[in-house]
């Protein structure tokens, strides 16, 4: 005898502000029996949007994975096998550095129906929270999103530098020194503006602006920490964090640098 198989919905929860959940995400949460959520997902809304569901924190912190990817996949499959509608709530979009594809494959392997609800990725929305557009007519007509989880290879740095558009880095705080040094080696102008936007869409959002040559020292000085999105390129000149304009942000950095 086989039990009724449930189903799984992978939901992209956006960058953290509940206002950036999609209607499809809200609907899926309302129909969930179990929600497995990540640290960067907007989990604070769960009591309101999924009041009848069991909420399980499978949060990953950099360098500290309490459950592990295969453990998460097992949990998803186990709950679905018991007939539950499992919502896997992730930060941003499930298919952007979110290991969503692995979870979909795990469901396929177990014969469990699975659906993906895209989300607002931090790659685009976190720069936007600091007033940084990734493209701007006449300034940048392309953007590349890279993972800073591991240092880039020399040929990757050369191609990135050669493209000349905007570079967006996720999970890049730890590898910032190797990235900035590598891009300079590959020929990028050390005066290229760079922004680090921490905790976008939360009330603790902060934008640090400098140049490719100066950002490492600046980030170290002000204590930039994960989660942060890095933006490298001329579009950073359009940045404004709430009321602070790019001039103020740059002046603030220069002041701090002068103070040493
Ligand atoms: N799937 C996610 C990305 C997961 S990787 C998405 O599409 O957004 C995790 C990285 O995303 C973090 O290290 C950070 O670089 C970025 N990130 C996610 N949410 C963020 C936020 N609110 N503020 C700043 N960076 C964020």
Characterization of the model:
By secondary structure, the protein is an alpha/beta fold. It folds into 2 domains: 7-120, 3-Layer(aba) Sandwich (Cobalt-precorrin-4 Transmethylase, domain 1); 123-259, 2-Layer Sandwich (Methyltransferase, Cobalt-precorrin-4 Transmethylase, Domain 2). The protein contains 9 helices and 12 strands. The protein has helices spanning 23-30, 46-49, 69-81, 100-110, 122-129, 154-163, 176-185, 215-222, 246-259; strands at 7-12, 34-37, 54-57, 85-90, 114-117, 143-147, 166-170, 193-198, 206-211, 228-232, 240-241, 244-245. A 5-stranded parallel sheet has the order 3-2-4-1-5, with helices on both faces. A 5-stranded mixed sheet has the order 6-7-10-8-9, with helices on both faces. Strand 2 (34-37), helix 2 (46-49) and strand 3 form a beta-alpha-beta unit. Helix 3 crosses helix 4 and helix 6 packs across helix 7 (176-185). The N and C termini lie far apart (72 Å). The structure holds S-adenosyl-L-homocysteine (SAH). S-adenosyl-L-homocysteine (SAH) binds at residues 15-16, 40, 90-93, 96-98, 121-123, 126, 170-171, 197-201, 226-229.
Short recap of the structure:
Helices cover 33% and strands 21% of the residues.
What's the domain count? 2
Give the number of DSSP strands.
Answer: 12
Low-confidence parts: none
Termini, distance in Å? 72 Å
Bound molecules: S-adenosyl-L-homocysteine
Structural class: alpha/beta
Number of helices: 9
What is the gyration radius calculated from CA atoms? 20 Å
SSE string, helices as H and strands as E: EHEHEHEHEHEHEHEEHEEEH
Percent helix: 25-40%
Instruction: Please tell me what the overall shape is.
Output: elongated
Strand order of the largest sheet: 3-2-4-1-5
User: Which range does the strand content fall in?
Assistant: 15-25%
């Amino acid at each position: 005898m086989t039990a009724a198989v449930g189903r799984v919905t992978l939901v992209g929860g956006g960058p953290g502000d509940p206002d950036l959940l999609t209607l499809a995400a809200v609907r899926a949460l309302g129909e969930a029996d179990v929600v497995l959520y990540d640290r960067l997902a907007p989990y604070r809304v769960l009591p309101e949007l999924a009041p009848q569901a069991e909420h399980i924190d499978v949060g990953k912190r950099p360098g500290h994975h309490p459950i592990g990817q295969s453990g998460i996949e097992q949990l998803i499959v186990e709950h679905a096998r018991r007939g539950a509608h499992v919502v896997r709530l992730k930060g941003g979009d499930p298919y952007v550095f979110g290991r969503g594809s692995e979870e979909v494959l795990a469901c396929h392997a177990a014969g469990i129906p699975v659906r993906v609800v895209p989300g607002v990725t931090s790659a685009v929305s976190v720069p936007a929270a600091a007033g940084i557009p990734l493209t701007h007519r006449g300034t940048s007509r392309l953007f590349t999103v890279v993972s800073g989880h591991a240092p880039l290879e020399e040929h990757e740095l050369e191609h990135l530098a050669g493209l000349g558009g905007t570079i967006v880095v996720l999970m890049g705080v730890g590898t910032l020194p190797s990235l900035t040094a590598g891009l300079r080696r590959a020929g990028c102008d050390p005066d290229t503006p760079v922004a680090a936007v921490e905790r976008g869409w939360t009330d603790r959002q902060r934008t640090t602006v400098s140049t490719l040559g100066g950002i490492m020292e600046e980030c170290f000085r002000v204590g930039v920490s994960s989660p942060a999105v890095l933006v490298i390129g001329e579009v950073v000149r359009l940045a404004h964090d709430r009321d602070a304009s790019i001039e103020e942000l740059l002046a603030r950095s220069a002041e701090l640098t002068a103070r040493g």
